[in-house]
Amino acid sequence: MExxxxxxxxxxxxxxxxxxxxxxxxxxxxxxxxxxxxxxxKFCSDKLNTATEKxxxxxxxxGELVDFSIEEENx
Amino acid sequence: xxxxxxxxxxxxxxxxxxxxxxxxxxxxxxxxxRGEISNFKNHTRGHLYFxxxxxxxxxxxxxxxxxxxxxxxxPEDGMxxxxxxxxxxxxxxxxxxxYVEKMEMDGIGNLYIEYEKLxxxxxxxxxxxxxxxxxxxxxxxxxxxxxxxxGAAIRDILxxxxxxxxxxxxxxxxxxVQGASAAPEIVHQIKKANEFDLDxxxxxxxxxxxxxxxxFNEEMVARAIxxxxxxxxxxxxxxxxxTIADFVADLRAPTPTGAAEMAVPTKLDTLNxxxxxxxxxxNYIGNTINHKNTKLDHLKNNFILKNPMALYELKEQKLxxxxxxxxxxxxxxxxxxxxxxxxxxxxxxxxxxxxxxxKNKVSLETSKIKATNLIKNILEKNxxxxxxxxxxxxxxxxxxxxxxxxxxxxxxxxxxxxKEEINIEDKINIKLSKGELIAVVKEKxxxxx
Lengths: 75, 449
Description:
The complex is a heterodimer. Chain A is mostly helical. Chain A has helices at 6-22, 27-50, 70-74; strands spanning 56-59, 65-67. In chain A, strands 1-2 form a two-stranded antiparallel sheet. In chain B, helix 7 runs parallel beside helix 8 (219-227).
């Protein structure tokens, strides 16, 4: 799960909720899925809460991606 | 007195003279003017009368019906126009005026016409159709931004994203957003952005006049937006009308800030969303376990589980009933066979076979007599028929005719009916009632009765 991106984790979570709520899952599988889903919930919440701000980039004319900050540009 | 009077011209002569002067001046024969329309009158006969003015001056203008036909817009007071025409004098009024041959809208006016034309064209090609709109992902990882690297637009977009959803990456594809090279640059950057794995692109600029925003009304930009594989949110700050880019884009935002808000959720909304999933999961698992427990309880209280002997008893009963059925079945079979045998055994043939023989013999004799009679009858009937036929045959027999004295002439077995079938010296056969003659023809003649 550590390798998952936030978006993938969220997508998996949505899928599990959908599957479980469709009502055809066997109990044993349902419990496994539930356990997995709760882990995904925690994973997503943690990611959101602890995620550091992403750096903004700018594509230079030479095709290079470099950090971009609006404050510097304005100075 | 008369001589003095002679220097006074008639007004019409003067005006005619002035008219000629105007018309001889090559510069005034084709003149280009820029001005604003006022006192516009559309004469019932189709000629247009108006005044062209600027801040300080005015000139009367007339546009004849046949020239007015080619107008691309509806002239109105207050419109800025570019006109082409000639200057001449209207002698009856003593005024000079411009005779307008061509008139187009100045600046913005032309832009509007172009805008409307392009909008119509692209709409008819289906570029604005809903079915081509790509969905905007709810939780984007990476957003491309195409706008100027300085200015309010980029600042608003980045600060909005940072505030709402800081875990999202952004890449700015800097582009001019105003002036002649803006459109090709925007097109270039849309193509470039499509080389990155972006979830969505925001393309736009802050507000401005229609000329400032013009790049977003260019056909090439519209087509680049349409061709983009990545969904595009248009973000051109303006109040009233939409730009063409807005119509083609997958989603239209009224401002750059608005575009950023549409592109990303807020962190809080997302957390709420996750928590909503969490409570649904808990509900689900709680309900499921309750449900299974209830089912289990119900099963536990089932009669059979509570009275296992009943299970055995039921089987016993079933076995008995099966045994009974089987016995009955076998008995029936035996009885059936016995009955068939009895019937066979009691058949009369076994008791007196000779009588059976006698009975059959008598019946055979009777049949024989019947058959003989039948054949006799048939033979007699046929004999009678035969005699009748012989008599009929006798009547038509040619020999009978010969008996009466006629004879039959043939040549090489062919009956001769006409003297032309025979040549002189031919050998012919004459059949008589008794015997036959062979003769040579000596002469041919007509025959008369």
